[in-house]
Amino acid sequence: MTSQWDYFLKNLGQWQGSFTHLSPLGEIMKDVRSVLTLTEVDPRTVRLILQRFPDNQPPQELKLDFTSLNRSLLFCETGAFSQGGMQWSPFSNFGAEFSLIDNDRRLRLVQLYDSNGRLDQLTLIREKRADTNAQEKPPLTLDQLLGKWQGEATTIYASDWYCSAPFFTELIIEQTDSNQIFQQLTYGNGEQASTITSKAIIDGSRLLFNQNNPPRQVLLLPDGASSNCPLEIQSGQGFILELGWLMTPKKRQRLIRQYNSQGEWVSLTLVKEEKIL
Q1: Model confidence over 113-135: pLDDT tens digits?
Q2: Cβ contact 120:113 at 8 Å
Q3: Any idea where the Biogenesis factor required for ATP synthase 1-like C-terminal domain is (predicted)?
């Protein structure tokens, strides 16, 4: 049986890219070139070396050795992963990191909240393996998302790392007028399927789901990326944090971290979907 550690090893190599710091509205604040190297030192040790090269500043370097995996970190069979807070609570900073992998490219996203529960900043990390010609995707547009997407998903539970059987997903996104979209999400197999509908206001590269509880936004970002998260986390309300990646015009993946109404991290879900209409 493949282990979390084996999934971790799918990320080995040298990854060249950049850390793009964004405002909560998706405005680019600064971009810092980076090189991240993951090396298997021995069968149970992986060494991480992260180098960042800020403009007009000395290079920064971080070194870490991994001999085990933290309970706040989960990997999927593709090598995708997410790590972050296991418990949200009022008056504390909170956040999560997501990573999706597509052959010789990786896309990572960090979503951070301040001590008032408000979305504070985002960091988009775009990387390619060294010595490859893997190309960055174009910036994501609403037109690319419109249509019907079908696929399957698997969920890993944070409490015991149990992985569910694959289940069906369908996402329909329609533009109903010049400044609004309708979205219908169906997930689950057979009689266990559930459907959720929602509407969003189009505000440039932002989709604002103001009718949701709590309200959330989807940001359309460079490299085919999307960030989906609440604008503000509120006590007593469950929520999700999500990274999406349009890998080809008709192939998309989403990585979803789910929290319950007590603010406890429940699960990580990887969705693989294809556009069929």
Answers
A1: 999 999 999 999 999 999 999 99
A2: yes
A3: 136-276
